Amino acid sequence: MTAIALFYQLTRAGLDETVNMILIRAMAQGWRVMVRAPDVGLLAHLDDMLWLGPEDGFLPHGVAGGSKDGEQPVLLGAGGIGNEAQGLMLLAGAEVVEAELVGLERVWLLFDGADGEAVEAARGQWRLLTSWGLAAQYWSDETGTWAKKMDKAAVTKE
Question: What global pTM score does this model have?
Answer without folding.
Answer: 0.94
